Amino acid sequence: MRALVITRFSGPAALAVQDVPEPAPKPGQTLVRVSAGGLNFADLMASKGGYPGTPPPPLIAGREFSGVEESTGRRVMGYAQWAAFAEKTAAYSNLLWPVPDHWTDEQAAAFPVNFFTAYLLYWQAGMTASEAERPVEGRAPSPVRAERSSAPRVLIQAAAGGVGTAAVQIGRLLGVEMYGTSSSDEKLARVTELGLDHGINYKRNDYQEAVMNFTRGEGVDAVFEMLGGEHTAKSLRCLRDFGRVIQYGTATGRQPQLDVRALYAKSASVQGLWLTYLSQKREIMEPAWQQLSAWISERKLAPQIGQVFPLARAAQAYQLLEDGKNYGKVVLKITM
């Protein structure tokens, strides 16, 4: 079968479509004939050897896919750690979900990582109202819901990306006041149509100053932060009292920096979110899926797809992501 292989850790140029053996399912796994794959920033990091736990090359790339489960014939979308960008993949049954009838294969491939991550960001910020909000050992209750009667405020970094566009759609349903950053007015206009309240072009405006101006000096309750470096410290300074920066990525490639004085001054916190870890916890994933699937059935969620590339042009798709020129999700068409 054909698969996209990371031949060495040197980025998009080292990707190659090769013939590889079909996968042998382990206990708890099932075979899926893959139609499309969703490209994530984690895939770009993995191609450079910068994603935690990446096996040594050569390895099959990809962690998100849609296709047909061979044993049942049902259309599914799924999440894996590796080997999703192939004509067949072995997937764990608990990380497969049915594809809505009104969605294309490309839309289904764009769902799992973006929408579970976005929903769990709100859950971790204490802003969801479903049973997923119930207490979990080691997770402190949020003072935001307890102390504020007005709509909570969130700053979404990279609001025009895959997770960003998902977070805007979910935030609108949760009644959150949303501020979002992007590199272009065109992208911000598209995200505004999804429900973003305040767009900030970070190339023309300092987003910390913009947030403080929008909120009359108060700040936001949470920042969904995936840039790393100095942006973690800057995001802290965008918070109001008891606010949370939730770090779920480091797109700049730099370790997050902290402003400890801002932590002290606002009784703020910095938390991490890693879908790889949370995806193994049924008590978190199942309630999240219950809420997401309810919204899907009501046609209130729609994955935003920027471009679709054939598997043979995967290197160009990865490069588009690295250059930050994508809107929403970049999808690979595995089988034509």
TrEMBL record:
Pfam families: ADH_N, ADH_zinc_N. The keyword NADP applies. GO terms for molecular function: NADPH binding; oxidoreductase activity, acting on NAD(P)H. Gene3D superfamilies: Medium-chain alcohol dehydrogenases, catalytic domain. Keywords: NADP, Oxidoreductase. Residues 10-332 form the Enoyl reductase (ER) domain. This is Alcohol dehydrogenase, zinc-binding protein. The lineage of its organism: Bacteria, Pseudomonadati, Acidobacteriota, Terriglobia, Terriglobales.
